[in-house]
Amino acid sequence: WGGLTGYIPGLSALGEWDPEWNKYIDFTNNPKTNCPGFFVGLNSFYDLKSLFIVLGGVLAATFVALPIASFGSVFDVGKVVFRSETYNYVGTINRICERAGKARKEGILSLEKDLEDMKNVFFKKGIEIAINTKEVDDVRRMLDTEKKYIENRHIMGQEMFNYMAAYSPAFGMMGTVMGLVVMMSGFGGANVSGVEESTADKFAGLLGGMSMALITTFYGVVFANLVFTPFAGKLKRKSEMEMLHKDVIIEGVLCIKQNEHPILIKEKLSVMVPPDVATELESNTD
Length: 286
Fold this sequence. Notes:
The chain has 286 residues and is mainly alpha-helical. 68% of the residues lie in helices and 0% in strands. It contains 10 helices and no strands. It has helices at 4-7, 48-65, 68-72, 74-82, 89-106, 121-132, 136-185, 199-257, 262-270, 275-285. Helix 2 crosses helix 8 and helix 7 runs antiparallel to helix 8 (199-257). The protein starts with a helix and ends with a helix.
């Protein structure tokens, strides 16, 4: 292991391998708790003040830009990104066809007995509206309105992370400018101890401090492109998948309301779903 960095070019940039690799390594400059190790070079990318400037500034700006109610749900919206959600289009279409067959034989009012067994809330609400509403256009309008409200809530969550992605690089640059101002202001004259420093020592201190000031820009770029923007994109994709599933349900409920044949309903809905789902539906029919 001791010669590992000599065989892989560029690996030594992370630090030299320490035979005592199992010793405790933290992200501080304290020699009592830190030792030269494989990942100790990453200490250069850790600065608590810079992290506070970026995250604190982003949260404060987002708090001003959005309503308090939207900002309060940031953690709930964040959980949606990591939550695994799948939509069983085949099962949904099959259940729609079953309800359509029953409605053709016994009338649409017979579906009222099945409401308690329906687990999909949106499908259940659609059947209730179809039973209690006379005109098909009114059923479509009410279901489209319900879907629009759900979609608007999803857009609010996406908008929150898009705001954060836009603010993050700006606050990263602001922290860098703040650090440069502080360093340049102390570049002339004596240091804080009153002892005159040489030009070489001043430049050494300036360059060392500049590397820390640039860390704030690094944090801003990383949070914008590795956290906030991907979160917004993931939420958008999840919303599109859910809206497609709801469109299938809406068309299925309208077909039930119009007393269409289950075979025709399956053919119509198979056009709306992804190709692999349509292939599975066709194989099940065969």
